[in-house]
């Protein structure tokens, strides 16, 4: 009898659950119809609410609404950042100097540890999954950030077990997202590509540069910014609304917690609406001092007030690529993950960092076939769950994440020298061991020369064409569009010679390069009945 194993994206802002059922991948909707379920719990009148119902309590019952708690796991109170919790239940220090929350549950006040909060929340997800699937869950594959410590990963597994979701594996979020992407039917599963996975969530940003070689993921670099996320865009809108309200009514809403909670709720709705349309209307009852507030906001104004956050998003991706010691011209695809990736300006800013003819940006705004960025991680975890569902515990324990390796990879590409320059055989960052065959035109007695490929980045300074008379010179983004800018291109040329082979060819030659685990390289060439080989 097959096991029912779910994939779980356990996020700091929202979580998702998915399952592979009869070869079809489904993202599970909870009782409220939500697939991206807010990672929140709220207590009111003796009842416990979770997800969207808990989020609704942020305006009228914020002190008993617990949010943004996942990252507090296994951390001491002294080390946590509580800035995201100012409009919800505030963390406190428990007797073990760990994180807890004080909530009024019914008639009494309780101090609830973050561990217990996680168990309660995962139980709610367990119930939702059971109701949707119609049978008991046997286990889960859970995705967490790459900077989670081993202690945090083990704790997540322990708490999931208590919630009735035994964790077969705790895997990395970026590789889960990428696994979902490369499993699309229109993607070549055997391709060799370099990916940037940029996950822009509600309270944090995470990224990874991953080399994908025929089903194997090699993580080259990771980066995290725990102070950059969709919340920064919300705060920019909140500040804009607060200024407009104060200008109109001469009352500062920043002085009232309830007023700011209402503005925060409306700001998130505005952000989501402007991700799909260019303008939106809003109306908020009794913001402060009894005044109602209504108006409109367009996408241009939103992009201007959020300019600082958008700049930081661009810088995050730029620094991530640099950390991997690769150039933006080396990147084949950028996969945008997380709810903030729905914002069109995020795609625009990231696109501006790469060569549009060389690099594909995968997001809802640039790719009509793109998977919902809120669902990518859960989908990848569900695919991984289907792969390991029939393994026993010992087999799974041997490899915590079979699809991922940090093994050796090529620091330089390898190619064959030709009259035109050089033809690549093995790309940079190719995972070792590897065997690759290519064919080249060849006639008569030829010398085949295997070389390292040297790559240079050519930078040209370009001055833009002057604007036509009467053309609108106002920019929605930059004040320096008339300044000179750089155009980058990649130049490859033969480098160090690794091997030479002489062969008599009859129109073409097949060249085989094999690199073993101990970094020994074997080179062979074939043409008809001719065959030569050697080891470097």
UniProtKB/TrEMBL annotation:
Superkingdom of the organism of origin: Eukaryota
Gene3D superfamilies, alphabetized: 3.30.30.30, 3.30.420.40, Actin, Chain A, domain 4
GO molecular function: ATP binding; ATP-dependent protein folding chaperone
PROSITE patterns: HSP70_3 (PS01036)
InterPro entries registered for this protein in UniProt: ATPase_NBD (IPR043129), Heat_shock_70_CS (IPR018181), Hsp_70_fam (IPR013126)
Key words, A-Z: ATP-binding, Nucleotide-binding
Biased composition (Acidic residues): 471-485
One Pfam family from the record: HSP70
Region Disordered, residue ranges: 462-487
GO CC, alphabetical: cytosol; nucleus
Family stated for the protein in its record: Belongs to the heat shock protein 70 family.
Protein name: Ribosome-associated complex subunit SSZ1
Organism of derivation: Wickerhamiella sorbophila
